[in-house]
């Protein structure tokens, strides 16, 4: 049994670092708040007597040795948040992983394999895009140079900011061999809550594509320029987005236009340029790909009709992922044995497990999200489910660590 | 005859202050660049021996005395620009006014009435909204407190910034009695250039309304939230703007969505809130009013269908304006006598003459804008037309100042 109150104390402690609007967190990757949380986390790891490593992209590992010199079982998630995001997303997974290790230490339980708890850098992708950058470096999806050179909206680079907060560690410290990876996370969607379940056994992750679409026309005066001669990118983009919504319905994909910028962004100037992002997701790759084809045609057609120039730039693609069957079975068996109400579920959100799954057997356990709200200060998960998930994680990790 | 080369030297001098991309200017109201231009302008006025005043909203006046103690003839415009705007908008009018006065001084020409050249603060409304704030204070349209309290996007107030650049003068210095006001300005539209004319005789200004529309829904995760349960303000706004475009065609009004902000503005978060401005203009008030009615219904209907909340906030209204018949006739007669090719024209853009017209007889003279481009670095007016306008202005001012 985990010490749930101890876990809760750690969670509440985290909820103060970057706190906004009472229940929210604003702890973007590599900000001062992220640094503060990292300091608290590493000090805690050291106090437990774990060996602590930081790698060259800022991932933090705390290691409990095993009885044999084997590849470790890894458990973790991320401590960064969205702007005005929630207190559970990522954080619950890291702190439950930590609690599992502390429970084993406290009870003097030895395992064959080492166990490592990890905090991955910049899972959210809110400040530096794309998301899950640092687990993506481990899997070989992104190069370190690419990650270092990504910039936030103020032009600050990942590499400089990582250095500034003092978490640019060494490449040798990266996770190399991994026996297995388990990540606990809140669902961030409404399915488990709607069906009144305790546990989600995650079988894979939806495919996701991100695009930036920039549409450029002629900047001119709002009062003097006749409508007929305008090349207005704003009106073009409104039509495009409205048509993409229809296409998303047709292809049954999830569509989000989350980021939108107009230039020069002044009431009485017809914009020169409008840029926005498209996030499209589907369980099946072919649906996502069909949507993308149709999206490109729509952008092309509308731009042509309106004599504006459009550029479509892919920011990120992550095809549909299937997690490891054996770990899924292990989670299922343990959950059933404990009498938890569970179901199999496909994750709508990306997670670090997505990239780790490319290099090692991985799977995830979901906790219900109240009303399915996430990436918002109203994000909430009941204590009961955090407790259930922690105990299930304990059993699964223990079993994996003795394999 | 004005000294055209002297005017050109002043214009070129101005074109260096806040210069961007070779041909453009970035000289937003009350910035360091605006201060620099004001310093150059006031020093020039002083060197001419004019008496210089700055009023409590930063308007700068240079006065040449008349033979009698009568209300002055006023000529001028503004020296601030849009972000990445042009070198002529406003500036040509101020510097031609200055050149008229210098020409009279140089030739020892006395007039019955005093003549004042004025630079109005923040005509553009790009940094502090609405436009033409400082001429609006003179006319009683805006209170000084209202103007002082407007804020730029970084939260800096007009009042503080005016003080910071050292141009908060005294209320007693405001223009009080005005005999007549004439403003020379570039057309900023394509009409004069298309018709190959030298001069536009401005009979009035289109009515303009500005709105800010804020649409609020539920912020949530792009990957986990089923499309059916979303309350997505971005998709609502795309539909609204697309429908407004159709309405604008129907009602024959000019429609511009120039400013657009999404919150939190992150690719994988369904926006919580989307805010945008609507600039609508028409020669006839009733057309603008009909459009606004229909716009409100559209916003209401779309928000209702999509269960999002919309708020419409009027930022500015300026009904259609008609300029003074006598001054229009004076301009027409002088233009014809000089053999200039001219036409009567309604201004699509607002100008300081719009508010001064509420308290004194006013009119304007337009110069052709190459390709109708303005509020852009590509803004250009041929020297020939600047020269014609300067000489026409000289005759008109001289005649008014002897009335
Ligand atoms: N869990 C999570 O919100 N990850 C961010 C990446 C994504 O948008 O799926
Ligand atoms: N002349 C000019 O661009 N004025 C700004 C106010 C407007 O948008 O009409």
Automatic annotation (TrEMBL), chains A, B:
Record-level Gene Ontology MF annotations: N-carbamoyl-L-amino-acid hydrolase activity
Keywords attached to this entry: Hydrolase
Stretches of the chain forming a coiled coil according to its record: none
Source organism superkingdom: Bacteria
The UniProt record lists the keyword Repeat: no
One Pfam family linked to the record: Peptidase_M20
E.C. number: 3.5.1.87
Record-linked InterPro entries: Amidase_Cbmase, Bact_exopeptidase_dim_dom, Peptidase_M20, Peptidase_M20_dimer
Record domain Peptidase M20 dimerisation: where: 204-303
Repressor in keyword set: no
Family statement drawn from the similarity comment of this UniProt entry: Belongs to the peptidase M20 family.
PANTHER family named among the record's database cross-references: ALLANTOATE AMIDOHYDROLASE, ALLANTOATE DEIMINASE-RELATED
Name of protein: N-carbamoyl-L-amino-acid hydrolase
Organism: Salinicoccus halitifaciens
